[in-house]
Amino acid sequence: MTTDVAILSCGPSLSVYLRDRPAHQVTIGVNRAVVAVECDYWAFRDCKTMYIVEDGLGGPLGHPSCIAPARCAQNVQAYRPPKGLRFIAEEEIVNEVGPHNLPTTIVRWRTFSVTWAVALMAQWLKPKTLTVYGHDMEGWRYWNGIHIAPDPSRFNPGRWKKEQDIWNVVSGWVQCQGVAVRRILCEHSWCDATAQADSRMLYVCERCNMVRKGRRVKPDSPNAPEFKIT
Fold first, then answer.
1. Distance between CA 5 and CA 9 in Å, rounded?
2. Once rounded to an integer, what is the mean pLDDT over residues 92-108?
3. What are the two backbone dihedrals, phi and then psi, of residue 186, each rounded to the nearest 5 degrees?
């Protein structure tokens, strides 16, 4: 029986997981998070993500099972099947748990990768606790597979507002199913000390990095420095 599931997304607070490496029974990496952490499952909704990770970033760590819509799974397997990875079509899971047991009638839960993964995994794995890392829904920063760096395409307050609204409905719905949902964000208080001890600056969020360097640059500025891994 699965009791504890972690879902890892690509926002700056993914660094909290990378810092602490907490133990979870099942780990699911969304999009490029599988390049940072070896996961049990890799969840993505488009072929482009698969090709970027496989061709540009050396592939996921380990051999996670892939969860994707059937159309994506079929395209990838037909044209460029990744070595050693097993595909599970989203539709298989939906049929197994029953379409009526998903929040389709109350919210567009498939719109964003994390809300899609949370709703799907909550019903399929039925954990007691579901912990989400890297789902900040704010700012410019994004784990691009190499480092947490500014990504202007992510700075869209309208997009974040839409995702926050869907997240609130999905997370509330999941908790009504008896699954405790926790969204882990940067604690800020530990960032400065950690950055001093780690010259790679991997474990420090954008706001704390501004404070640490004595800068007055707003965290949402495209001039914010990259967090590189060496």
1. 13
2. 89
3. -60, 135
In the chain, what are the helix, strand and coil shares in percent, each to the nearest 5? 40, 15, 40
d(CA 208, CA 187): 10
Determine the 3-state secondary structure of 56 from DSSP: helix
Higher pLDDT, residue 123 or 226: 123
Instruction: Count the alpha carbons within 13 Å of 205 in the hemisphere toward its beta carbon.
Output: 25
The answer to whether 142 and 91 are in contact (CB under 8 A) is no
Overall residue count recorded for the chain in this entry:
230
- DSSP-assigned letters across all residues of 99-135: GGGSGGGT--TTSSHHHHHHHHHHHHH--SEEEEES-
Residue with tokens 């989400």: 132
Euclidean distance between CA atoms 150 and 218, whole angstroms: 12
Tokens of 31: 């999009």
Give the tokens for residue 73: 């799974």
What's the CA gap between 154 and 140, in Å, rounded? Answer: 5
Q: Rounded to an integer, what distance in angstroms lies between the CA atom of residue 119 and that of residue 134?
A: 17
Strand, coil or helix: 26: strand
List, in order, residues 6 or more apart from 166 with CB less than 8 Å away: 107, 108, 109, 111, 112, 115
Confidence label for 190 from pLDDT (cuts 50, 70 and 90): very low
**6 three-class SS:** strand
- The closest alpha carbon to 201, from 212, 189, 216, belongs to 212
Q: What is the mean pLDDT of residues 179-190?
A: 75
Alpha-carbon gap, residue 101 to 117, rounded angstroms: 14
